[in-house]
Amino acid sequence: MNLQGPKTKALYQQATKVMPYGVNSHFRYWGPDDTLVITRGQGAYIWDADGKRYIDYRLGFGPVILGHSYPAVAQKVQEAAANGTIFAWTTPGEITLAERIIRMCKVDKVRLTNTGTEATMHSLRVARAFTGREKFIKFEGHYHGMADYLNFSTASAEKGQLGSRRSPHSAPMSSGIPRQIADYVITLPFNDVERLEETVHARWGELAAIVFEPMMGNAAGILPKPGYLQKIRELCDQYGIVMIMDEVKTGFRIANGGAQEYFGVQADLVTYAKALGNGHPVAAIAGKEAVMMNIKPGEVAYGGTYIGNSIGVAAANATLEVLENEPVIETINRRGQTLMDGIAEILTRFDLPHVISGLPGMFGFKLGSTHESTDFRDYLDGDAELYEAIAMELSRRGVQPDSDGREPWFLCYSLSEADVAETLNVFNDAVASVKAMH
Ligand code: PMP
């Protein structure tokens, strides 16, 4: 496609000399001619090194719930930076933030951390310590960060790696993960009550936790079937298993109280990151009193030099204040619904079979099939090549979802009605142009 303009290309070439593949995270690598170098973001837009503007539907993979450099957040971050950033002591901002999270998410206690990976990593240790058991269930296509234990059969998996639905493989997503670690994880297809019940009934004595994304934030936003999350809750209660809801993508995005509020299920442990800080590094684990108070000095390890740094905490406090006082989610949902409906209408008009999935604040779609996805295997039936062709054409025309259809479209509060209208116009033209070429 060659998305890079001349200045972007030169900078990217420079980057490849000092960073493997010119990026600091593989998910940012779109190949040698399409990996961008971004110099600025404001509201719903980002600009590359050539000054080309994109309406941004990646939002840093989800965090930027209000908009890039949102003034109410940027100001608090600047003030914090002027007063020292880490002290190796508790700060008043951390207390306020924990109180806010408790109020919004109806949890009993909170511990902060820095990233989604650290949040899920800590939550798994806490669950193991609480139950005295070592194995856990996770679901195919669910991604929980870069820690080795959880890096099996995520949304990066190819169909051939997953084995049969009746006896799925736990496929490691990287070289360098010790083989024996696979013994600790039991992977199952999502939304399959029978398989889940069968596994838990047979193996509960070994199970510390069931870890899951409440909707598939790394696989086109596939939703849980009605009652499925309640079934997880029921099984965890019945067998003393810790229910870990990974809300790194859904938290403070699909409702002020996240997926727990939206789907009406309270987990034992919940992980938050992304939207919590509107793009600043801050994350949290939260949950029920008994499980959280098990994080006891000398017994269950929990720490990190940068935890509670005043930049992340100021950003989170400012972000949650806006969420609590303004119709952020409502506005995002309205715009997102218009986009979802508009995209469906255009795809239908161009006679392209499709299924839209997810919620307005984070949705996706599958092409080449009208079979609704309920798990990751279903999603992989879609036409990923066609999706990528359309997504790349969108980027070329200044509208940027991820090129990979597994990554949802994310919306921010700064996205206007006019931006949505422009997006749909561009979408129409991009589909027309890709259809003409195929
Ligand atoms: N959990 C989920 C559901 C995620 O989507 C992600 C990141 N995309 C993570 C955990 C890991 O978060 P981080 O990249 O901040 O480590």
Strand content: 5-15%
Mean pLDDT: 98
Strands of the widest sheet, in order across it, are 4-10-9-8-7-5-6
Q: What is the radius of gyration?
A: 21 Å
Task: Describe the SSE topology.
Elements: H1 6-18, E1 38-42, E2 45-48, E3 53-56, H2 71-81, H3 92-105, E4 109-113, H4 116-131, E5 135-139, E6 185-188, H5 193-203, E7 207-212, H6 228-239, E8 242-246, H7 258-263, E9 269-272, E10 283-287, H8 289-292, H9 310-325, H10 328-349, E11 354-359, E12 362-367, H11 376-379, H12 384-396, E13 399-400, E14 409-410, H13 417-437
Parallel strand pairs: 3-13, 5-6, 5-7, 7-8, 8-9
Antiparallel strand pairs: 1-2, 2-3, 4-10, 9-10, 11-12, 12-14
Helix pairs in contact: 2-9, 3-9, 5-6, 10-13, 12-13
The protein binds 4'-deoxy-4'-aminopyridoxal-5'-phosphate.
How would you describe this protein?
The protein is an alpha/beta fold and 438 residues long. 37% of the residues lie in helices and 14% in strands. It contains 13 helices and 14 strands. It has helices at residues 6-18, 71-81, 92-105, 116-131, 193-203, 228-239, 258-263, 289-292, 310-325, 328-349, 376-379, 384-396, 417-437, and strands at residues 38-42, 45-48, 53-56, 109-113, 135-139, 185-188, 207-212, 242-246, 269-272, 283-287, 354-359, 362-367, 399-400, 409-410. Strands 4-10-9-8-7-5-6 form a seven-stranded mixed beta sheet, sandwiched between helices. Strands 1-2-3-13 form a four-stranded mixed beta sheet. A hairpin with a 2-residue loop joins β1 (38-42) and β2. The longest helix has 22 residues, at 328-349. The protein is globular. Bound molecules: 4'-deoxy-4'-aminopyridoxal-5'-phosphate (PMP).
